[in-house]
Design a protein that fits this description.
The complex is a heterodimer of chains A (396) and B (407). Chain A has 396 residues and is α/β, with parallel strands linked by helices. Chain A is 36% helix and 22% strand. In chain A, strands 6, 7, 8, 9, 10, 11, 12, 13, 14 and 15 form a 10-stranded mixed β-sheet that branches. The chains are: A alpha/beta (396), B alpha/beta (407). Chains A and B meet through strand 1, strand 2 and helix 2 of A and helix 3, helix 6, helix 8 and helix 14 of B.
Chain lengths: 396, 407
């Protein structure tokens, strides 16, 4: 491995499509049917390829600035420099790499993939080995679908949840918080309740239901209280981002859950760009949240290894956010989910893969573990070909 | 006289309702892609239908989307409470069938929510049995040309087709009747390597021109995608020489020095092409006046629904009085059906009006049969107000579930 260097890197925008249109959440207008994955692929001198997506860098940057970044960070670098490894397990960033990974955790996923492929080992093993036989996933595409089909109202969400069940999912997440922006608060809360109860009726008692308000109940504790009261009989598995993170607010939520006998988890943290930042540390230390959710690709494997170390002994579980990471995010999440002791469930936006080799098998709502080296996935160059017109390649 | 007639019509109800439609059909429509700075626009668009109803049974329509984009339904609910109980005479002075001034009591609200005055003009027109345009002035044209404004970076939506992806959709627009098309450019800004983006921008204009022929107007809009790259902007302007581009819009963020260079290159390479800008502001900001005064801006483009009829009319008057030659081409992309009808009414009475921005959407909810679209232009109706009604049965059955009412 000592002679392996990264000889070329390409950055290519590839549209990934959903199977249906995704509507609004509590504060963002329609998500739509298609997102772009900014695929980064680094090829070493032996032809091994490490893959990731640079969506976060492209959000603020440009192709020109991202290429400059990739050139400095990766091009010509020895593969063995990417990660620090001890007894087959990654312990940290390779020499000099920390500065490149700090704000670009997605690059660490590429590093795990490339190092794994060069060494012929799975990224799961590089993370310490599998802790589970499979990785459960939830359908996260149940947005405000009632706004797309107003005549059907809450029933539209119930129908789509049932479709997810038919497609094999055993857990679904419902976007709620309609009173945050698009409806008057009380009317929004009532629709939220109708949606949750309608979905429970549609999918039966064996399917897990998570709800995510994207802070849509901010400053509406009376309505939040009523919402939790009404949906507790529907056996909600977790309540996510019901309000903006604050110690007082989460104390109140704990009290509301206790009042109605709900055993649901409280989760949040996807907005934490510098985990674990002070307010979330306070929530963790105070026993006020049960799951923590920074983005899997945004923070990458090294970032999440660090987060998991800090969460050890707190009882707070790892539930990385994954929405917006397209088809690549599913692969990246499976690896992390397999290796994380306290992992709960993979956020699956069910993007249609078009440029990667096949996903691991999906059985009874969970992905089996990949068996190949690295992430266990490669570029499928026949699927990639239509997108190669927009490839930006830099070489040594 | 007019105001006395309006006294008897008192606002009794205001509703706001989301109405969704598609560039095509639900689930199958085409996706409108990126521009120079934003992610995919998507395959649908929505109006937030504003209905202002009087105790006399009249209803004025507008699209409250600018208000929803800026905030939420609660803001509109709170801010429009004061409208209830107001007679139609409260908002403007109307004399001999013309709106002649705005009541200062309401100028702040109407300035903040320009779209509100579209509904008020609709109501006043209905109450006086006059078309909305006639409240501003005499009809100066009976047809309003419009351009298809949905040709974004379609090459990134279907990468395998490259520039042809735009040309294919341009031809579809022509087949549907449009005679003017706007192409989104500015690929160097974010999504492409700058030189490759410039090359693709030129290629798109060339390919579309070749596909649609010489009789179709081509407009281009870079959403400031050439900021900081005047070298590439010059290359682009040189590249479109001979392609008969009607206007170049937002090639760079407006500033006098860059616009002088742009004008020089325009004069050298494509002298018939207009330079247009100004969608983000209401037109009276210093930079636009500076550009106008220095002959660097051929048309200004504040948004129709942000401005509303009255403020836009005042801007047109200010330009007239200043002696500048700048024309008016309202931005209207998010305005969908009702915003386009407002644009048509405004254009009917505004000499400086150039062409209407058309997001090409059809809503089954609205009925405006007098707006006949033929050969790339809409007829201007002479029925009262905006000359649009809604299908009540459909509204009750589909949309009313999401209605927010202020009574």
């Amino acid at each position: 491995m000592s002679s392996e260097i990264i000889e070329s890197v390409f950055l290519t925008p590839i549209p990934s499509s959903y199977r249906k249109e995704l509507g609004k959440n509590a504060y963002i207008d329609n998500i739509g049917m298609q997102r772009l994955e900014w695929v980064v692929c680094a090829r070493s001198s032996s032809g091994a390829e490490g893959i990731s997506i640079a969506n976060r860098l492209m959000r603020e940057g440009t192709v020109e600035s991202t290429l400059a970044y990739l050139k400095s960070a990766l091009l010509g670098r020895e593969v063995e420099q990417l990660l620090e490894i001890s007894e087959g397990v990654v312990t940290g960033a390779g020499p000099g790499m920390d500065r490149w990974y700090r704000r670009n955790g997605w690059m660490t996923i590429l590093a795990f993939d490339l190092v794994g492929k060069v060494q012929g080992v799975s990224a799961i093993d590089l993370l310490g080995g599998p802790k589970h036989d499979s990785v459960p996933a939830y359908d996260t595409t149940l947005y405000f679908q009632d706004f797309l089909n107003p005549s059907r109202g809450a029933q539209q969400v119930a129908d789509e949840a049932y479709q997810a069940l038919t497609d094999g999912w055993r857990a679904v997440k419902l976007k709620i918080g309609r009173g945050g922006r698009w409806m008057l608060p009380e009317a929004g809360m009532e629709r939220d309740i109708d949606v949750v109860l309608g979905v429970r009726e549609a999918v039966g008692s064996d399917v897990k239901i998570y709800v995510d308000a994207n802070f849509g109940y901010d400053n509406q504790f009376d309505l939040l209280d009523r919402f939790i009261k009404e949906v507790t009989p529907a056996d909600i598995f977790w309540f996510e981002e019901m309000i903006t993170h604050s110690v007082d607010g989460y104390k109140q939520m704990r009290e509301i859950l206790a009042k109605y006998g709900s055993g649901a988890l409280l989760t949040c943290g996807e907005v934490d760009r510098d985990p674990i930042s002070e307010i979330f540390q306070d929530l963790i230390d105070g026993g006020l949240i049960d799951g923590y959710q920074p983005d899997i690709v945004g923070h990458g494997y090294l970032g999440w290894m660090d987060i998991e170390r800090q969460l050890a002994g707190t009882g707070v579980r790892t539930i990385p956010h994954n929405f917006g990471n397209g088809s690549f995010g599913t692969y990246a999440s499976i690896i992390w989910g397999a290796a994380s002791e306290t992992y709960v469930s993979l956020e699956d936006e069910r993007a249609i893969p078009c440029y990667l080799t096949a996903l691991p098998e999906f059985i009874k709502g969970a992905y089996t573990l990949p068996t190949g080296p690295g992430l266990g996935v490669d570029i499928d160059y026949s699927g990639y070909a239509p997108h190669s017109k927009h490839e930006n390649r830099i070489t040594v | 006289m007019s105001n006395r007639t309006l006294d008897s019509h008192v606002i009794s109800k205001v509703t706001v309702t989301p109405v969704e439609t598609y560039f095509g059909s639900p689930g199958k429509g085409r996706i409108v892609g990126r521009n120079a700075k934003s992610e995919n626009y998507g395959h649908n668009q929505r109006e937030w239908l504003l209905q202002v109803t009087t105790n006399s049974g009249l209803t004025g329509l507008s699209n409250a989307r600018p208000g929803m984009n800026a905030g939420g339904i609660v803001d509109l609910y709170n801010d429009f409470q004061d409208l209830i109980g107001q007679p139609l005479s409260a908002f403007f002075t109307v004399s001999d069938g013309r709106v002649t001034s705005i009541n200062p009591r309401w100028s702040d609200l109407i300035d903040r929510y320009g779209f509100l005055d579209v509904a008020l003009f609709d109501l006043i027109g209905r109450a006086l049995e006059k078309p909305a345009y006639s409240l501003l002035g005499d009809k100066v044209r009976s047809k309003i040309e419009s351009y298809d404004s949905t040709l974004y970076f379609q090459d990134l939506v279907t990468p395998s087709k490259g520039a042809n992806a735009v040309a294919i959709e341009a031809m579809e627009a022509v087949a549907k009747g449009w005679r003017a098309l706007k192409l989104k450019l500015g690929r160097p800004g974010k999504w492409f390597e700058p030189h490759a983006g410039t090359y693709r921008d030129i290629e798109v204009v060339e390919t579309v021109r070749r596909a649609v022929g010489d009789d179709i107007k081509i407009l281009v809009d870079a959403n400031n995608g050439y900021d900081g790259r005047l070298d590439l902007l010059q290359e682009f302007v040189r590249g479109i020489s001979g392609l008969s581009v009607m206007w170049m819009e937002e090639m760079v963020t407006e500033n006098v020095a860059d616009y002088r260079k742009l004008r020089d290159w325009r004069d050298k390479y494509t002298p018939q092409t207009m330079i247009v800008d100004g969608e983000g502001h209401k037109g009276r900001q210093t930079i636009y006046w500076q550009l106008m005064e220095q002959g660097l801006l051929d048309a200004i483009q504040p948004d129709m629904l942000h401005m509303g009829f009255w403020h836009y009319h005042m801007l047109a008057r200010d330009i007239e009085e200043s002696g500048n030659h700048t024309l008016i081409a309202p931005h209207n992309y998010n305005a969908a059906y009702l915003g386009l009808r407002a644009d048509i009414q405004f254009g009917a009475a505004t000499t400086r009006f150039v062409i209407a921005e058309d997001s090409t959407l059809d809503f089954e909810l609205y009925q405006g049969p007098e707006y006949v679209f033929k050969d790339g232009a809409y007829d201007v109706p002479d029925s009262p107000g905006l000359a649009v009604s809604i299908d009540q049965e459909l509204y009750e059955r589909v949309y009313k579930k999401h209605e927010t009412a202020i009574i």
